[in-house]
UniProtKB/TrEMBL annotation:
PANTHER family: ATP-DEPENDENT DNA HELICASE Q-LIKE SIM, DNA HELICASE RECQ FAMILY MEMBER. NCBIfam families: recQ_fam. This is ATP-dependent DNA helicase. It is found in: Nucleus. Belongs to the helicase family. RecQ subfamily. Its EC number is 5.6.2.4. Its main location: nucleus. It catalyses: ATP + H2O = ADP + phosphate + H(+); Couples ATP hydrolysis with the unwinding of duplex DNA by translocating in the 3'-5' direction. Residues 180-356 form the Helicase ATP-binding domain. The keyword Hydrolase applies. The lineage of its organism: Eukaryota, Viridiplantae, Streptophyta, Embryophyta, Tracheophyta. Pfam families: DEAD, Helicase_C, RecQ_Zn_bind. The keyword Mitochondrion does not apply.
């Protein structure tokens, strides 16, 4: 968009979409006029200028090494430029506008040298490790080697040598060996292995081993770009082909076999079937690898329709279709997050052969410490509480003796010293952690436990209640930030030349590799405060990426915002500086997800409910890839039911989306089992670990619940439950919600209508619930683990007398009769009430019917 051709309204709309504050936007437009680029620059630089005292913090990665100066924004220059191509992107030679950024790059890459690469018909300079010499004349990979030769050899030894030579690894991991064996046997293969376990090597080694080309289908440009850069460092020539590439020279070279590995997005490969068939005949194609293959499935969390069309690969590259092939070119599909249903969908949708091998490794990441904390999130007071420790960590502020003071005001308020709120990051908690941080001051919402609220106790996705309105802002305004197309960075196509004899001693980051190898043998798990290391904070809205990054920057943390609507040049810069450890914190939406392979990320914080456990585990998996301890903390409002992100879904997909969100919610609430166990079991893995902590006996409450909400066996119940049970007296709506989930998990109750919801709304007894009630078993105590919201509600010192009295009243048959009568006579409320009344498939309808029976 040309900033000069638009109206203020258009600029405002764009900026709101990016997540900027309205007041910031209007200030910017007042100052610079209706120019999008200038307004962005103004806002981001203004945030920085405000942060005069914070020497290095920057919301948008301006030149942080020039304190106090208005930044010469990389954004400014790049926003105004046309989209860069890869050669420009890699070429760090200065141009006047970008000089400051470049100084920074040069400083941080003083170990590097220039490598001349020929790409897109140009000679460009690529910053590389000092160990790399000039690129060989040819782009060809290792010498061609026929199938028979590979099979005939002791391939494991050959691979070992190649690994040592190119990557500096001593051996393959067990699952990598299995995958390679499947490939050598020409089998299609589905690989499910944890994030950071080394799936890429499974498809990279075949290129080295066979000398043929490996074609990798990958969902994002940033991901392809990073992998190509790494391969180049490891001496393997690679390129990536994006959807918007105009210059066809890299593509042409790729199709004539100039690169050992071709990364391509699903949209592009569908266009390249014919040239790839020719390539299969000339240099040969070793395999098609479909990375992040969960994108194939509508039941997964990152569905991309074009992934489904990859089924043509099986047909177009089969021996039946291409007579020169001895056997079908194998498909290798890889992901870290696929439930059993998604796996089946992948195999079917890609038409993988009947004899496909499915290789599953443990999803367990022993060095990741999972915890859940209660927070109302999204407000300044929550930021102050929740990020106090993090700010202290990065700014070396001493805990509990220095107030959280923005850097720009620190000089004027040095003597005001209050204690921090005592929250800690990285508590010793492997299995679970609920911080009962109920904030009395803002709990009024939950106090309103009138009969009306209790009837609508299970807030679902309904669109009517005030709570729900508030909840909806917790999520992305739309699902633009989801992976929808490959084009996520302003680099669309690129050639990377590998250097053939790479010396391990000099290449890459040997330290991290050593650590990885060590960690693989014996994960280092300590329980204590983590060292600094980089942090990624996932927030649900684009707006919050900006507000939280701004907040952290004000306290001197080097933080930047990342969301799909920010200028691509900014996003590229964030990627780069995050990888170079210039940034300490990236505050991002889900757009900053797949493919972030940075070894030393120490903390992944989710600030608000994720939409699925798949997405959560995928994002959390960015932490601790060096095998060292890392924290994965979910901050969520445990007293509220999360709502679904608005999106275009079929009815079936909506059901599935609710199921996924509901599973995620239940993950947050569970206190009874190890969180890691819950996560890996979600992906269908058996996990044996001692159960831990709380035991609670709740027979009476269980019966009470069934009695009240399922309208059953009134005489039987009234004998049992009218006790002045203390726990009951101290419970509230939130508590009952937890109990409902527990009973649902045990199969005693279910949702009374056909709607999909995160939380039960119209519970009704199942056959097994009824059987249970009538059996002698129901007299015995149950051991149960209280869920997080139950603990939370019990810990808050509110009096829930109104609800308790209300609840107790139901036990008295007369009160109960009167209430039912009142309810049935009540004027039907809008929508739901009208619909539900007299409808025997709903609780309201059944209650009404029961009332007629009672009054006879
Ligand atoms: N055999 C091995 N020995 C030691 N380290 C290895 C081995 N194989 C891979 N690695 C390292 O593991 C790290 C993670 O690898 P990779 O990016 O392939 O993970 P991934 O399984 O694809 O993760 P994700 O699901 O997040 O994409 C890399 O830095 C890689 O160098
Ligand atoms: Mg990967």
């Amino acid at each position: 968009m040309n900033g000069n051709d638009v109206t203020s309204d258009q600029v405002i709309a764009k900026l709101v979409g990016m997540g900027f504050e309205f007041s910031d936007i209007t200030d910017a437009i007042k100052a610079v006029g209706p120019s999008l680029d200038n307004a962005i620059e103004f806002i981001l630089n203004d945030a920085r200028t405000n942060n005069a005292g914070a020497s290095t913090a920057s919301l948008c990665l301006s030149d942080s090494k020039v304190p106090g100066k208005r930044a010469t924004s990389s954004l400014q220059s790049s926003c105004r430029m046309r989209q860069q191509n890869i050669t420009e992107h890699l070429n760090l030679a200065p141009t006047p506008k970008r000089s400051k950024v470049r100084v920074l790059c040069n400083e941080s890459t003083n170990q590097t040298n220039s490598l001349t690469v020929r790409a897109e018909g140009l000679e460009v300079s690529l910053t590389m490790d000092t160990s790399l010499n000039h690129c060989p004349q040819s782009f060809m990979g290792p010498s061609y080697c026929k199938d028979e030769e590979i099979m005939g050899f002791d391939w494991e030894n050959k691979v070992k040598n190649l690994l040592q030579k190119h990557f500096g690894f001593s051996s393959l991991k067990g699952f990598q060996k299995e995958v390679l064996a499947a490939w050598l046997a020409n089998q299609d293969c589905l690989v499910l292995a944890a994030t950071g376990s080394g799936k890429s090597l499974c498809f990279q080694v075949p290129a080295l081993l066979s000398g043929k080309v490996v074609v990798v289908i990958s969902p994002l440009i940033s991901l392809m770009h990073d992998q190509c850069l790494k391969l180049a460092k490891h001496g393997i020539s690679a390129c990536f082909l994006g959807s918007g590439q105009i210059d066809k020279s890299v593509e042409q070279k790729a199709m004539t076999g100039s690169y050992s590995i071709i990364y391509v997005c699903p949209e592009t490969i569908l266009r390249l079937i014919k040239p790839l068939q020719s390539l299969a005949e000339s240099r040969g194609i070793a395999l098609f690898a479909i990375d992040e293959v969960h994108c194939v499935s509508k039941w997964g969390h990152d569905f991309r329709p074009d992934y489904r069309r990859l089924s043509v690969l099986r047909e177009k590259f089969s021996a039946d279709n291409l007579k020169f092939l001895k056997s079908d070119i194998p498909l290798m599909a890889l992901t870290a997050t696929a439930t059993i249903r998604v796996r089946e969908d992948i195999l079917k949708s890609l038409c993988m052969s009947m004899g496909s091998k499915v290789i599953i490794t443990s999803f367990f990441r022993p060095n990741l410490r999972f915890s859940v904390k209660h927070s109302r999130t999204s407000s300044l007071s929550s930021y102050e509480k929740d990020f106090d420790e993090l700010i202290g960590l990065y700014t070396k502020r001493k805990k509990s003796c220095q107030k959280l003071i923005p850097q720009d005001t620190i000089n004027s308020s040095r003597d005001s010293c209050t204690t921090s709120n005592g929250r800690t990051f990285g508590q010793d908690e492997m299995c679970q952690n609920i911080v009962n941080d109920t904030d009395d001051s803002d709990s009024s919402d939950d106090d309103e436990t009138s009969e009306k609220d209790a009837v609508g106790l299970w807030v679902d996705n309904g669109l009517t209640s005030r709570h729900e309105k508030e909840l909806s802002v917790q999520f992305l305004e739309d699902d633009f930030d989801k992976v929808q197309e490959a084009d996520d960075l302003d680099v669309s196509c690129g050639a990377f030349c590998g250097q053939s004899t790479l010396n391990f001693k000099n290449c890459g980051t040997p330290d991290s590799r050593k650590l990885l190898t060590k960690a693989e043998k014996k994960p280092a798990i300590h329980y204590g405060t983590l060292p600094e290391g980089p942090t990624i904070i996932y927030v649900p809205t684009r707006k919050e990426t900006l507000s939280l990054a701004k907040f952290l920057s004000r306290f001197g943390v080097k933080a930047a915002a990342y969301n799909a609507k920010l200028p691509k040049s900014h996003l590229r810069q964030v990627h780069k500086e995050f990888h170079e450890d210039v940034l300490q914190v990236v505050v991002a939406t889900i757009a900053f997800g797949m493919g972030i392979d940075k070894s030393n990320v120490r903390r992944i914080i989710h600030y608000g409910w994720p939409q699925s456990l798949e997405a959560y585990y995928q994002e959390a998996g960015r932490a601790g890839r060096d095998g060292k301890l890392a924290d994965c903390v979910l901050y969520a409002n445990l007293s509220r039911v999360p709502t679904l992100l608005p999106s275009q879904r079929s009815e079936e997909q909506t059901k599935q989306a609710y199921k996924m969100l509901s599973d995620c919610y239940r993950y947050g609430m569970k206190t009874s089992i190890c969180r890691a166990k819950m996560l890996v079991e979600y992906f269908g893995e058996e996990f044996t670990q001692e159960r831990c902590l709380f035991t609670f006996i709740f027979t009476l409450l269980l019966l009470l619940f069934l009695f009240i909400f399922c309208s059953l066996l009134e005489t039987y119940i009234s004998d049992v439950f009218v006790s002045q049970n203390q726990t009951f007296a101290a419970s509230d709506l939130i508590w009952w919600r937890g109990l409902a989930r527990m009973l649902q998990d045990r199969g005693f109750i279910r949702e009374g209508d056909d709607m999909s919801r995160v939380q039960l709304r119209f519970p009704e007894a199942t056959d097994s619930g009824l059987r249970f009630l009538k059996s002698t078993e129901s007299e015995q105590a149950f051991d149960a683990y209280l869920e997080a919201d139950m603990l939370l509600s019990m810990n808050s010192r509110k009096s829930y007398s109104s609800f308790s009295e209300w609840g107790k009243g139901w036990a008295d048959p007369e009160i109960r009769r009167q209430r039912l009568e009142r309810r049935a006579l009540r004027k039907p409320r809008k929508r739901k009430s009208r619909k539900n009344q007299q409808n025997l498939s709903t609780v309201r309808g059944r209650l009404s019917a029961k009332l007629s029976k009672l009054s006879k």
